Amino acid sequence: MKPAHYVGGAFLAPTGGTESAETFPLTSPVDGKERGQVPEATRETVDAAVAAARSALRGPWGSASPEERAATLRAVAEGIEARFEEFVDAEVADTGKPRELASTVDIPRAAGNFRAYADLLYGRAGDSYTTAVPGWSGGKGQALNYTVRRPLGVVAVISPWNLPLLLLTWKVAPALAAGNAVVAKPSEETPSTATLLAEVMHDAGVPEGAFNLVHGHGAGGAGEFLSSHPGVDAIAFTGATSTGSAIMRGAADHITPVSFELGGKNPALVFADADLEAAMEGTVRSAFTHSGQICLCTERVYVERSVFDRFVEGLGARARKLSGYGPMISAEHRDKVLSYYRLAKDEGATVVAGGGVPAFGDERDGGFYVEPTVLTGLPHDARPVREEIFGPVCHVAPFDTEEEAVALANDSRYGLAATVWTSDLSRAHRVAPRVETGIVWVNCWNLRDLRTPFGGVKASGIGREGGEHSLDFFSEPVNICVNI
Ligand code: NAD
């Protein structure tokens, strides 16, 4: 399978031809070798995709009933499941992530996203009110108000490389469920499963133009052409906060609504009354899953002073034992993470575990690996404690009081997710609502129910995704008032 644009129900030739003549190399993060070429969408390709989406709204897709849309989404879910191994292979090849992660999280949840929104379509109820008609309005009776939801139109979906198919489908499924047409642009680092998804859409009989896919870079490329396009009615974006700012500036010209899932610098609070073994295990998962390249990963750990040394020792020992972890997505990202490792050492951090590049003695030595790293001893204003690193690293600092723990957690420009470890029920309920993040986990991490609101506060995003929240973003309520 070669990455290809999918526009108006047709795959554009991967190389040659006027549309896809420009390509760029795809590099394996596992060994640093080139794996193939990806087409770079021109402005004309993006224009064609937006036009195809617009015409789909005027065609069969625009008039499809909720039942027909739900059946289409189910067919897409089945199509992903029928080619499950191919999807897993493609995701592993693009990202280098452990196969187990791709086969238990990324691909099943991507199929699950289409099923969940097929089901949710039926749970929607509109508002309805009867209103007295005042004399000045010419009536004596009553008026009936009711609300219908209308799709927004052409939706741009721009997604990152860390959970390529999962995060793409997390937006595409509700956007289609709500009746929109989609133009999707996956990350330039991970084009493969998106292309497979286009094949599945094609085979599932999704009407032409309802789903379009363009590949390419962000700034100055396909991402920017798409997000600043006057024919786009809404933008759903997951990625870095700085990219969100750039997209928002382009969207401002056309007052295009945005839904943003952005960066984080997620805290974990470990109280002395917690089950410490569970807190250590949980923090190993929350800091090092997918080598820290999940927006929800913990990068700041605050531990009550009386158990601080024990916790650091236990976390460090577990981090040193980790094996089978994946690489950073690119040489550039590896260099960024390593620059934070160096900065932390320069600023006087104690390196409890890791801090460098592992040596495997095999092909992986040509890849983009860094060691799982645990740091202590940095001041709260040190850059490695304040800035999102997006690698397998956390800094652990002590606190003395609950008040101080909450203040430390909230002392960040970000506010995506937090984890609280305690066995005191009252404390859990007292602390959780005071932490300024969109998601708070108590004695767990990344436990997700697809119906719950997902998103961040502050620089971590705008709006909420998940369940009804996504369907709300991807549709517009229209109130109809009838004088009866
Ligand atoms: P990124 O912002 O560099 O890229 C994301 C997407 O945006 C890519 O498709 C890219 O091509 C595109 N893009 C880049 N610049 C653009 C521009 N100027 N205009 C339009 N499109 C543009 O992010 P990334 O490096 O792929 O992903 C890592 C980041 O994503 C981290 O900051 C992480 O926290 C964040 N993230 C957040 C969530 C969440 O749910 N909050 C989930 C996953 C990742």
Poorly predicted sequence stretches spanning 5 or more consecutive residues: 15-20
Q: How far do the termini sit from each other?
A: 59 Å
Strand order in space, largest sheet: 14-15-16-13-12-18-19
Quaternary class = single chain
For the secondary structure, the number of strands is 22
**Discrete helix count:** 15
The distinct bound ligands, ions and cofactors come out as:
nicotinamide-adenine-dinucleotide
Class by alpha and beta content: alpha/beta
Query: How much helix, percentage-wise, in residues?
Result: 25-40%
- Give the overall silhouette: globular
Radius of gyration: 24 Å
Output mean pLDDT.
96
Describe this structure in words.
The chain is of the alpha/beta class and 484 residues long. 38% of the residues lie in helices and 21% in strands. The protein contains 15 helices and 22 strands. The termini are far apart. Bound molecules: nicotinamide-adenine-dinucleotide (NAD).
Blueprint of the fold:
Layout: E1 6-7, E2 10-11, E3 23-27, E4 34-39, H1 43-58, H2 66-82, H3 84-95, H4 99-120, E5 128-132, E6 142-151, E7 154-158, H5 164-177, E8 181-185, H6 192-203, E9 211-213, H7 222-227, E10 234-238, H8 241-252, E11 258-261, E12 266-270, H9 276-288, E13 298-304, H10 305-321, H11 331-346, E14 350-353, E15 373-376, H12 383-386, E16 393-399, H13 402-410, E17 414-415, E18 417-421, H14 425-431, E19 439-442, E20 457-458, E21 461-462, H15 467-473, E22 475-483
Parallel strand pairs: 7-8, 7-10, 8-9, 10-11, 12-13, 12-18, 13-16, 15-16, 18-19
Antiparallel strand pairs: 1-2, 3-4, 5-6, 6-22, 11-21, 14-15, 17-20
Bound molecules: nicotinamide-adenine-dinucleotide.
